[in-house]
Every structure is written in structure tokens, then in C-alpha cells.
Amino acid sequence: MGVNGYGTIGKRVADAVAAQSDMTLVGVTKASPDYGVEAAARRGYDLYAAVEDRAGEFAAAGVDLTGTLGDLLDAVDVVVDCAPSGVGERNAPVYEAHDTPAIFQGGEDAAVAETSFNARGRFEAARGADAVRVVSCNTTALSRLLAPLDETYGVEKARVTLVRRGGDPSETNRGPINDIVPDPATVPSHHGPDVNEILPDVAVDTAALKAPVTGMHTHSVNVTLETDPDPAAVRDLLADEDRIFLVPEAAGIDGAGALKEYAADAGRPRGDLWENCVWEESISLTGRDLYLFQNVHQEADVVPENVDAIRAMTTDVDAAESAARTNETLGVGLESRLGDDGPARAELTADD
Ligand SMILES: NC(=O)C1=CN([C@@H]2O[C@H](COP(=O)(O)OP(=O)(O)OC[C@H]3O[C@@H](n4cnc5c(N)ncnc54)[C@H](O)[C@@H]3O)[C@@H](O)[C@H]2O)C=CC1
Ligand SMILES: O=C(OP(=O)(O)O)[C@H](O)COP(=O)(O)O
Questions:
Q1: Which residues bind NAD(+) (predicted)?
Q2: What is the dihedral of CA 36, 37, 41, 42, to 10 degrees?
């Protein structure tokens, strides 16, 4: 496969694909010879020009290219478009002209693809598809959370407030810098309808804000269930989801900064958190109303989803097997030894 747009998401998808024993990363494209080309070179990834007219910039910078986007498309069985929001839609005709199946990201309108994708909530719809859209980081996290809740208890209505990061750490042109703003000010935000692209029968209203942070998004979740389980049962249900990390109270992790530190200390590449991060002590029930907080690492949570989308499009591997392979290969499934299932702190050993 190939990655068109070796940026925040593209470089992570490239690494995740390269780690799969049943996939081959043929190469990646860059639009310009900036510092990203060094990352690709260090990893031995063949580099292609995303925009043919700009190939000369690479030669001028002394950067060797294997070819152009068209050459890459003719060499792969699927391309993962990781261009900036809205650019993927413009790339789509090129993929069609080369008869190359394509995976798009959540910054594109749902109409760019035959189906939206989330491995937990909507896998089979991508089987053999020519165009698939992996939903955005927020929608990915909401789909992962609501799917097991709806399957197990039934969701009467979900209401989610999203406090979104203003931009990624490397994005100096975004904000807000000194405010928390409704964004969009209209309610509901696009996230609810986007979740319905994955879980069409789940009633979900979302309201979104933007905050002057870069690390992660935070969701304040309320779900009215159709039955009234006890919090421990909900906790156990979510604990069984490999792509949900239950953050134990004992760990003293109080926000995105500590979560990213925890991930880096755990040896995660770039300190990435592929999982939803649900504060365990936030899981509470008032009658049939479930409440919890979760954080979402926007740069990372869609990465395993892209790997699974490739398998759904190009193989007959089922959802569970694909997720198991992806999770095993990447090491998805963070569990703290300080959690309820872990030993008491004193028993932690160097082997933990
Ligand atoms: N960064 C995030 O938090 C998340 C982003 N996404 C989505 O992933 C997609 C990519 O976003 P990012 O990686 O953040 O963007 P980015 O700006 O970090 O990377 C985009 C890359 O595409 C390259 N590019 C520019 N024009 C291109 C073209 N015509 N063809 C191919 N590549 C081109 C750029 O040089 C850059 O390397 C967007 O749809 C975005 O909405 C999804 C989840 C989270
Ligand atoms: O694409 C994303 O971030 P960005 O476009 O704000 O960089 C994330 O997936 C968040 O998008 P969303 O807030 O539409 O879910």
C-alpha cells in the first residue's frame, strides 16, 4: 500500500502499516521537501512527489525521489490519503483514474467514499470497497465507546460535549490562543451525524468547543441507557475493549499532559495513545444515565483504524481477527498495573 501525504496522520499510518506482517508499505508521498523527508529516509521509505509539478523542488533540495504519485498508485493495491482536510476529495479523481482503491480520513466529507469506517462499529461495509473514509479522531472515539454500550445495554440517547484541542503541537497557525470557544456555536455539531455514519441507529447529540491546548481532545459523555446496569458492570464492559484504556484513579493521571507522559514512559512511538482514555473513577450511573470523561489523542487513535480498513478492503479477514492482528503488532491495549486488576503498588516489580 502507499501513503499519500506523509504528515501527522500519514507518517503514523506508514509506520503502523510497515509493522504489519501481512502488509507492504511501497512508499509515501510528500508535497514539499521539508523535515518530513528525513523521517521517511531514516525509516527507509521510498519517497514520491505528491504533486508532480513540484518534483523539481526535491531535486533542488538534494532529495531523491522514487517517482511521482501516479507511479506510486500504479504500484500499490490501496492508497491511504492523508492529505490536509478537503484535499483528499481533490485527489479522489486521480485514484479513480489509476483504478487504485483509496482510504480517506475524517477531514473529508462522508460523500467522498462508499462508506465510513470504524473497526468496532462498521467493518464489513468496507469489504471490497473502492473508497472508504476512516472517521475523524473524535468520531472514532465516540464510535468505540457507544458500540459496546448499545450492544450490551441499548442506548436511548447519548449527549456528548467535546472540548477539542485547538490544533496539533506542531501547528503554529491555529488556536484559539486565549479563549475557549464554541466551535461550532451551532448545536448539534457535525460529530453526532458523523457517528451515525458508523452507528446509524444510535441517537447522539454533540456540542463542540475548541480550547487553547494541543495534546488531546476531552469528551464529557452522558448516555441514557435502555437498562440500568451497575457502574462496575459498565467498567468491566469497557475494560474488555482493547481500544479503550481505563485510567485508574490510583495512577494519579489528571489530564492530557500526564497521559502523554504515561504513554511516552510506556515506550509508545511519539508518545502516541491509540486508545480512548476513560477516567475510571468518572464512570458513574444515576438510574439509567451513564456519565464518564474520556480523552482522545487526535494524532493517534485513527491509526489502527486505517490498518483495519486496509484489511477490510483488500482481504477476507474478519473484524475481530484484523483488530487482534493490528493490536498485537502495534501493542494497542494499554493497561495500568495500578488499576483494579493490577497488584497493589508495593507488588510492582521491575518486570511490570
Ligand atoms: N491531525 C489530527 O488531529 C487528525 C487529522 N485527521 C485527518 O487526517 C487528514 C490529514 O491530517 P493531518 O495529518 O493532520 O495533516 P497534515 O497537514 O499534518 O499532513 C498533511 C500532509 O499532506 C501533504 N500534502 C499537501 N498537499 C497534498 C496533496 N495535494 N496530496 C498529498 N499530500 C499533500 C502535506 O505536505 C502534509 O505532509 C485530514 O483529513 C485530517 O482531517 C484525522 C484525525 C486526526
Ligand atoms: O481532523 C481533525 O482535527 P483537525 O481537522 O482539527 O486537525 C480531528 O479528527 C478532529 O476533527 P473533528 O473535530 O471534526 O472530529
A1: 8-9, 107, 165, 298
A2: -30
Q: Could you tell me the distance, in angstroms and rounded to a whole number, from the CA of residue 80 to the centre of ligand 1?
A: 11
Q: What is the pLDDT of residues 170-216, one digit of tens each?
A: 999 999 999 999 999 999 999 999 999 999 999 999 999 999 999 99
> Measured in angstroms, how far is the CA atom of residue 84 from the centroid of ligand 1?
3
Contacts of 29 (CB under 8 A, 6+ apart): 2, 3, 4, 5, 6, 47, 48, 49, 50, 69, 72
DSSP class of residue 22 equals T
- Give the range of the structural domain holding residue 269, as residue numbers without chain letter: 137-302
ipTM of the complex: 0.96
Compute the distance between CA of residue 152 and CA of residue 321 in angstroms, rounded to an integer. 21
Check pocket membership of 314 for ligand 2, CB cut-off 6 A.
no
Q: Do 88 and 107 meet the contact criterion of CB atoms below 8 Å apart? A: yes
Does residue 82 have a known ligand-binding role? no
Based on the residue annotation, tell me whether 137 is a catalytic residue of this protein. yes
β-strand pairing of 131-134 with 181-182: unpaired
Rounded Cα distance between 26 and 10, Å, is 13
Ligand 1 atom 39 nearest Cα: 107
Query: How many domains does one find in the chain?
Result: 2
